[in-house]
Amino acid sequence: MSTRASTLTGRIMSAPSIIVLFLWMAVPLGMTIYFSFLRYNLLSPGMEEWIGTLNYEFFLTDPAFFASLANTLLLVGSVLVITVVGGVLLGLMLDQPIFGRGILRLLVIAPFFIMPTVNALVWKNLLMDPVSGMFAWIASLFGLPAIDWFTNAPLTSIIIMVSWQWLPFAVLILLTALQSLDRDQKEAAQMDGAGPVAIFFYITLPHLSRAITVVVLIETIFLLTVFAEIFVTTGGGPGLATTNIAFLVYTQALLQFDVGGASAGGIVAVILANIVAIFLIRLIGKNLDK
Amino acid sequence: MGAIRLEKVKKSFGTLDVIPGVDLDINDGEFVVFVGPSGCGKSTLLRLIAGLEDVTDGKILIDGTDVANEAPAKRGLSMVFQSYALYPHMTVYNNIAFGLKMAGESKDVIDQKVQSAAKILNLTDYLDRRPGALSGGQRQRVAIGRAIVRNPAAFLFDEPLSNLDAALRVNMRLEITGLHQELKTTMIYVTHDQVEAMTMADKIVVLQAGRVEQVGKPMELYNSPANKFVAGFIGSPKMNFLGGELAAKHNCHEIGIRPEHLTVSTDRGDIAATVKIAEHLGAETYLHVEADGLGPMTVRATGEMPLGEHDKIFLTPEQDRIHRFDAHGLALGPS
Fold first, then answer.
1. Per the omega criterion (within 30 degrees of 0), is the bond before A111 cis?
2. What ipTM goes with this model?
3. Per the database record, which ranges form the ABC transporter domain (chain B) (predicted)?
């Protein structure tokens, strides 16, 4: 791409894909923005009319909005903490030369390949079910009463499931980062008199900071829109206990048939995601341009 | 104090004996260079002394105490790594201070020691920088600074100059030698470069396949190598080894003659040869020749030599500079 001609050719060649990608993103976004200013309910077709920002007012003043916003942040935050801490610890373990490491690594990665719906069904029916679930059986071995997870600790249950799903991703990224740590550095620290704990905090953790940033950024993007696990298990309940923004938008659109309100909710979700993203990049993104 | 003594130090990886058993005495304040071709075990031997590898058998005595089973930090040694192994996320100051911090020194003591080390190594202006923002030579100095502040019984250098370019290498070589004269601390230096070994060492240890081939002062190794390996390894260009009639005349299996101990003449001499390649360096000329009936030889002649390809020349070895070897490659001493 040195001459002007080759730069121009490059632009022309890449234009089609850029245009398609742009339309792919811009058209739905434009339509959603347009719908969000309409009274548009599927139960009363042909009655669409411009109502300005009324949809937004309804959505933002709805108590369900605040409850689901809190749930979203709690869900994202908890899963991030669990996966990053667990990912670092598991990564450290899998980095050691232990027996059966290859198979162990494969097993640890496996949950990531399971689709969210299946994951949720396995947890709901096989593990957390208060009658026939494995956790209930384990509790009964100790003579304890079974916990009805989805009734008594609904959001915690969702957090556990989603964490289980995302832990492998964190392990994968952090393990590769650990493997790239120069052995000489650890040995130099050893010569300097640092014990295993000091080496972890002064050498390993700083080395992992970039990888942790990547994990946090990527996971946040996906965790803001967790849907399948909630849909399959609790359906957002009991009450609003497990409704996050994504699920709230879904209930607006497809349970109340309010396309206008759902569009407004969708736009709000986009704005919220951007706020979180800007906040995150300000906070930790500087780790990336080292 | 830093007298180090190795007694039958042995290291095996599985069934492979990397170091079959080494005995070595290093006196306090000595600059010792371990030299040998790659894979000869010189780095392993250094790592055994440092404590980064466990010995399979034998004793490592530092000032009379056996430290073979002590943790690296307990041995009171500092190491400078080939890759420098600086901590990339710490400033130069913190890199140098890390060992002191781990030792639980107070802030004032740390500051004073770091500043004085930085002064010795000309790093004062760079203390706030991270290693990524330093040149190769500066990184090397930081690595040395990190070693100095701990006030070790001995410094261990693992090929510290091999990542630097040629000009910088010569500079750092002088700096390290100067540092040794200033600190008078024991230094063990590993290199595969015999020039570094010859120029820096008080004592050279030549290693091959985990075995010590010869220990001695640089000039001792140069003038009276114990065997063919040492003779070939020390000195550049390499010593010429000649067999056949010429060797028989000297009553041995093979003779060795250094390229600089051959006199070149265009009309008469002991060995007739044809020039293949002449390398003109100005101060000296390297002639790669094909000697009649003896094979390829190298000659190092002082000054300029107006010789080129296909020129016929005659070579005469300096008689008292001829090394004699037996069939096993051991030196026989002068005839």
1. no
2. 0.79
3. 4-234
